[in-house]
Amino acid sequence: MLRKLSELCDLECELAHALDHSRAVRAALGIGRPATGGFARQNAVLRLSANFSQMPDQALISETVLHPVTVMTGSNCRLPCAIVRLVRSAIKDGQSKVSEMLAIEARSLRQSDIAGVAQLFQQRFRDPSKPASAPLLAYLEDVFLNHPWRDSEQMSKVVVDGDGRVQGFVGVFPQRYVLKDSVIRTSVLGTLMSSDPNRNPLVGAKLLRSALGGSQDLSISESANPLSLKMWEKSGGATLPLFSLSWLRVLRPAAMSLAMLCERYPMFAPASPVANGLDRLAKRFGPEFLSIAADGPQAKDFEVGPEEFAAAVPALSTRYDIRPQWDAAILTWLLQHAGSKSAFGPMMMRLVRDRKDRVVGGYIYYGKRYGIAFVLQLLAEPGAERLVIDNLLAHAEASAFAAVRGRLQPEFLDALVRQKSLLFRRSATVIHTRSASLQTAFAGPNALISGLAAEGWTKLIGEEFS
Question: At what angle do helices 226-234 and 39-52 cross, to 10 degrees?
C-alpha cells in the first residue's frame, strides 16, 4: 500500500512538472493566452535574444525552446497520454513560431524604409498615438543616408516583414578613429528598436549580428541597456567600464528635483519659486557640498561660434592615442546637428584660456534656467582639466542651472571628483572587434570616443520632433 501511494505521489509530481513546462514553453513563445509581462516572459525573451547572437539557428531551437520538453517526453516517460499530447502540441506550435522568427533577415536601410523607421521610432520612444512628423522623417534621412562619411558597407540595418512593414531597426553612424598611423573604420551603433520585442525577441539579435558582421574594424555603442549589452557580450563585445560612467554635479538640489519631476508632470512647473527658496536655505546651511571649489588654477572662458570651436579641436585632441579623424567638413556637419538640438536648452560652445592667454580647453553643453544642463563634449590640454571643469561649473551656476551632467571622459575624473560630482552608470559603452590589439588599445583610458566622437550629438537623444 505504501509503495502504491509513493508511486501515485511520484506520478502527481511528474504531472505538475509537465504542466509547468508546457505553460512555460507556451508563454515564452507567445502561444495561447497573451503574456502579462511577468518575470517568466521577460526571462524567456532575454534568453532567446541573448543566446541567438552567437548560436546557429538549429542550436537556438534546441537549446532555448525544445530541449527541456523533448527530454521530458522521451521513451522512459510515464506520463498520461493526454499530457504527452499537450506537451507535443506545445512543441509543434513552438517549432512553427520559431521557424517564423528565424525566417526574418536584417538588411541595409533603404530610402523606402525611412517612413517605417520613423513610425517605429515614434511608437517605441515618443508618443505612439501620434504619427511620425515630417521633421523626424527628414532628420532620419539626413543622418543615416546623407552622412558625409556614408559607406555602403557600414549602413544602418532594418528587419522588414512579408508585408513590407519595418519590424526592427538599428542606426549606424560611420566613424574613423586614428590609432598612431592607422585609420580604424568604425561603426557607431545607436538606436536599436523592435516593434514587438516580446512577441519576436530575435529581431534585436538579428539586427545586432548583421551590424557587427560588416567590414568595419571596430563597432562601438555608448547607449547599451542591460538587454542589448548582454547581446553585445554574447557576440564577443567588451564593456569599457570607465567610459560607461556618467557624472552629475548638483548646484540647486530643490530645483533639480523639481526639474526631474516636471519632465514627467509639467503641471508642477509653477512651484519653481518654492524650490528656489529652498535652495537659498540649502546654500546657507550646506555650503561645503553645494559651493564650487575655487582653489585650483585660474583661467577665463568665452563664448565662440562653430567655426572657432572647430578650429580649436584638432590641437586639443592630439593628446589622445585614439581620436576621430576629424576634418573641417565633418566637424562643421557634426556641430550643425548638435546645435539644432533643443530638448536640453540652447547649445553653448566655450573655449578656456589660461593666464598666458593660450586656449587650453573647451566645452560644449546645453542648459535651461533651473534645469539640468547636459554636457556634450569636454576638451583640455594635459594638465588643464581642472581649468575646464571649474569654468564649466562656474558658468553653469551663473546661468542658474540646477545641475550639470555628462558622460565621463576618464582624463577629467580627478577634476570632477574634486568638485564633488556624483558618478553613476546609466548605460554602457561597449566595443566589438576581431582584433585583439584594438581591443587592448580601447581598454585604456586615453581615447576620445564619446560626445561628438560617438552619438551624443544626435537629435534622436531627447528631441521630440513635434
Answer: 30
* Gap between the Cα atoms of 197 and 65, Å rounded: 17
C-alpha cell at 357: 592667454
Per-residue pLDDT tens over the stretch 445-455: 899 999 999 99
| pLDDT tens digit sequence for 325-364 | 999 999 999 999 999 998 899 999 999 999 999 999 999 9
Cell 507556451 locates to: 26
pLDDT (tens digit, 9 = 90+) per residue, 4-36? Answer: 434 434 444 444 444 444 454 445 444 444 444
- Looking at the predicted structure, is the pLDDT value of residue 81 above 70? no
CA 134 to chain centre: 25
260 pLDDT tier (thresholds 50, 70, 90): very high
Residue 404 DSSP SS3: strand
Reduce the DSSP state of residue 432 to 3 states and report it. Answer: strand
Query: What DSSP string runs through 210-266?
Result: HHHTSS-SEEEEEEE-HHHHHHHHHTT-EE-TGGGEEEEEES-HHHHHHHHHHHH-G
Give the span between the Cα atoms of 165 and 113, in whole angstroms. Answer: 8
Residue from 404, 289, 301 nearest 358 by CA: 301
Compute the average pLDDT of residues 150-159: 93
Pick from 215, 212, 216, 203: nearest CA to 233: 212
Q: Would you state the pLDDT for residue 94?
A: 55
DSSP string, 266-335: GGGGGGHHHHHHHHHHHHHH-HHHHSPP--S---EEEE--HHHHHHHHHHHHTT-SEEE---HHHHHHHH
> CATH top-level class for 106-216?
alpha beta
CB 377 within 8 A of CB 455: no
Residue located via cell numbers 508546457: 22
CB 271 within 8 A of CB 259: no
| β-pairing verdict for 218-224 and 182-194 | parallel
Domain segments of the chain as ranges? 2-103, 106-216, 245-453
Per CATH, the architecture of 245-453 is what?
3-Layer(aba) Sandwich (3.40)
Distance CA 225, CA 429 (A): 9
The whole-number average pLDDT for the span 421-434 is: 95
**Phi/psi class of residue 380: alpha, beta or left (left: φ > 0; alpha: ψ in -120 to 50)?**
beta
Torsion of the alpha carbons at 131, 133, 139 and 141, rounded to the nearest 10: 60
**331, 353 contact by CB (below 8 A):** no
